[in-house]
Amino acid sequence: MRALLAMVLGVFLAGAPALAQDAAPLILPEKLKQIAPSVWIIPDESRPMVPNVGLVVGQTGILVIDTGMGDKNGAIVAAVARKLAPNLRIYLVTTHFHPEHDMGANGFPRGPRMLDGSTLLRASTQEQDIAEFGCSVCKIFSDRSPAAADLLKGATYRAADISFENDRMLDLGGVRAYIFAAGPNHTRGDTGIWVETEQVLFSGDIVMKPQPSFASPYSSIAHWQSTLDSLAQLRPRTIVPSHGPTGGPELIAGYKSYFTEIQERAAAAKKAKSSEDDAVSAITAAMAGRFPDKNRLAGAIRSAYTESP
Ligand SMILES: [Zn+2]
Question: What is the mean pLDDT of residues 126-154?
Fold first, then answer.
């Protein structure tokens, strides 16, 4: 399992460019922008180790999606939430357990009264990921730059206030957010948020413009395909991925066709008795011109090869 995890993490991380020494992966609150009547985002501007942060504001509560890495980022995001909704309860949900999404939760306010604190919701599959893997990538992230190391120093996972099995409807007062566990895709605990009133989907790493990353030993291309079908059925008007630019249904279609091509090529290679490694080389050679992240390609090809009958 350890070797497999190291391989998986290599695939997960190798595609990301190294950070400049001075570019701390901080959430930039001045970038806050409204994308629907109840929905704001703080875009990541495609910076590594930074997520897109979502904020959904109702009449009785505000839901924050993803924290940024470390307590400092969590406090930055919490301050934006407080400013958008000065007198409302803060709910927090994370799209998966990787540190830039979840490990700022301790920077959010804690307190016994409704308005003092914040309520962290987490899918039970995400809790399993934390229990099994912990922050396996923290050291690798920390090694990338002193600024990243500084943010992660002493960072820990906050315990969830509400752990849910499959899904949870959160009524924010006039706005409802449907929070659902959708893994195993990028990770086992992948969590999406559907703001049904405004047809906005927060898709985590399940749908993005950058190539998909098979970051868990549990990642499954077949399951990921079925997740994409379910998300397409929602007919989202806007998709906010956890990294990269916001888009529409074409982001789902892009992942569908990428996976389908890989599945077809991997099935053909396996049928022709190619080894897994040979299939990875051949399919990578055929596709890397269009999809340059070879490590991410390899992760998808290996999953497709293994799962092909
Ligand atoms: Zn991730």
Answer: 93
